[in-house]
Amino acid sequence: MLPEHGRTAQDLLAELSALKAADLPVRGGKVTAYVYDTGRPEVHETAHRAYAEMLEVNMLDPTAFPSMVAIEKQVVGAVAELLGRPDAPGIFTSGGTESIMLAVKAARDSGPGGGEIVLPVTAHPAFHKAAHYLGLEVVPVPVDPVTFKVSAEAVEAAITGRTVLVVASAPSYPQGVIDPIEEIAALASARGVLCHVDACVGGWLLPWLREAGAAVPPFDLSVPGVTSISCDLHKFGYAPKGASVLLFRDAGLRRKAYFASAAWPGYTIINATVQSSRSAGPLGGAWGTLQALGTQGYQELGRTTLEATRRLVKGVGAIPGLRVLGEPESSLVAIAGSPEVDVFVVSDEARRLGWFLQPQLSYAGIPANLHITVTGVTLSGVDALLEVIAAATEAARAKGPAVVPDGLPELIAGLDLDALDDATFAELAASVGIDLRGSGGAGQPEMAVVNAVLDALPAPTREAILVRFLSVMYS
Q1: CA dist 324 to 11, 143, 309, 369, 398, Å?
Q2: How far is CA 299 from CA 1, 79, 189, 205, 304, in A?
Q3: pLDDT by residue (tens digit) across 135-184?
């Protein structure tokens, strides 16, 4: 609601603090997804100040604000240097999804008019989103059920005359493993198809892990056949949210990502990104973070992240009823349960203890699991994290698996969701104990039940339900 009279900054900030009281904490390492913490408050403070300094600079017109051009060149250049080709042209974007969207657009507009993207089932849903928006089809390729990597042979078999892009991950988010980039890029090149490496998570992490002693295979633009690569700086670059870089093999391919329009009588439209007007704040924040940490800072973060990951993997392996999926090659760890240990219940029990472990639903033969992103701050709390996981596991074992009401998945799958308005959908959910309006109270369900219900549904039904959840939440 708009107030009748303007409010003071002190009043507004007090309200924001109150509203944030129920949020997950963004510092300290107890939230193992969504946020990335160096454990260095002075670095984050520097980033915030640089962000604020560039906040009102509009990146719509580079001729009006040359400062943002100079800063973007520095940021893109730093990423290009780290990822195997210092002269690679690139674009600063708002995040991994936008980087992927632009990579897919460039491939579509460079192709022979086909309409397919070949990708592993573990590839990020941003590719599905890009295909949906850009009128392309996704051709999913299964991964190995033990390594969780896609094989080059399976990718090659999926390529047709309509394929405009082949995708590989470094690493894939669900299990933190790296697809065989060299083999996939080579076969894509041999078939005349572009190859994008999704290194949104690993682009600014894997090189530092390699320096710290990890066995990281070639994955970047130094690999023949790789034509584009995405790298998020608001992940392991530790920049404020809204910072990613998309690099291309050459400037010609980058131009295919651009959009220009002169078909109107107004100002000239030329966009490097999906957005038109956008703040240079995230760019300033990314630049400030890179400069504040420098090479030595990232080397140290890489060392501590690798040590924390190894200790976490070893510790989880010693907890009865849990196992790590695959062999993580980054700092992303997926933990599966067993018949007596429901990972959705483990997540709930960990939340009671003040820690957030991200649930992941089963899909394509991959079991439901808990995802943990290890960051620079994790090492200082890895023993506490392992204690929480062990305690939550024992509590989950005692409580037993989440119980899905008989017939509920079948009932949901048979609903005509489009025929229900948001209020009716919320009432239907409440009738089975799921409070979508956040009224709280003793009857509010644990997320284990919600996740168990979703896990029992096919992917298209899950998606339809999630859309309704979001609509009700904002109603």
Answers
A1: 47, 17, 12, 9, 21
A2: 48, 15, 33, 10, 9
A3: 999 999 999 999 999 999 999 999 999 999 999 999 999 999 999 999 99
pTM (predicted TM-score): 0.95
Contact 122, 175 (CB under 8 A): yes
Q: Please give the structure tokens belonging to residue 236.
A: 């392991």
Q: What is the CATH number of domain 48-289?
A: 3.40.640.10
Burial tier of 449 (Cβ tally within 10 Å: 0-12, 13-18, 19+):
buried
How far apart CA 277 and CA 10 sit, in angstroms, is: 29
Axis crossing angle, helix 447-455 with helix 459-473, rounded to the nearest 10: 140
List, as one string, the DSSP characters of 69-95.
HHHHHHHHHHHHHHTT-TT--EEEESS
Q: Is the peptide bond before 142 cis (omega within 30 degrees of 0)?
A: no
Q: State the sign of the Cα–Cα–Cα–Cα dihedral 307, 313, 317, 318.
A: positive
- Rounded CA separation 39/214 (Å): 22
Sheet holding 194-198, edge to edge: 90-93, 244-248, 228-232, 194-198, 163-169, 116-120, 137-141
- Distance CA(81)–CA(290), nearest Å, equals 13
Considering the chain, tell me which residue range(s) the CATH 3.40.640.10 domain(s) occupy: 48-289
What backbone phi and psi angles, to 5 degrees, belong to 69?
-65, -45
Topology (CATH) of 294-399: Aspartate Aminotransferase, domain 1 (3.90.1150)
